[in-house]
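Q: Got a minute? One more chain.
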Amino acid sequence: MASPVREELIARSDEFRRLATEHQQYQQRLENLIQKRYLSEDEKLEEVRLKKLKLRLKDEMERIAMQYQRGNVA
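A: Always. Here it is, folded:
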């Protein structure tokens, strides 16, 4: 579920929107991998890589959201 801050940032910030889009693309690729019964070694490595990339993007989005909230509270 999307928070109001996240929705506002998607509407206003090109960087945040880019990060959110990239995060969604990684999530979609992970879902495709998870649906497979067995993963090859390369797919297992890709799964780990995608999870790390998603986490990095999520952390960056959280950082932007925190900065935005600090700026709007004051």
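A: The radius of gyration is 15 Å.
Q: Perfect, thanks.
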